[in-house]
Design a protein that fits this description.
globular, 4 strands, alpha+beta, GMP Synthetase, Chain A, domain 3, single chain, 2 helices
Length: 71
């Protein structure tokens, strides 16, 4: 996913999501100020289409959002 760093940042920004990071298992972790997961689901869909495989995206306010690194 890090080879698509600019695309991830651009798509996250366009969807109102911030600080995209990568968890050890390949999950993309983002920050969202809005309630719900609509933007997160849209980002997952867009990234999955971009790389040709499912991309799991979560927000940084859940317990599984640890062990992340910058893209």
């Amino acid at each position: 996913m890090s080879s698509h760093r600019a695309d991830v940042q651009r798509l996250a920004d366009a969807m109102g999501l911030a600080v995209p990071r990568l968890r050890d298992d390949g999950t993309v972790v983002v920050h969202s100020d809005e309630p719900g997961y609509r933007a997160v689901i849209r980002l997952s869909s867009a990234l999955s289409e971009l790389v040709g495989a499912y991309v799991h995206v979560i927000t940084d306010d859940v317990p599984g959002a640890d062990n992340v690194r910058e893209l």
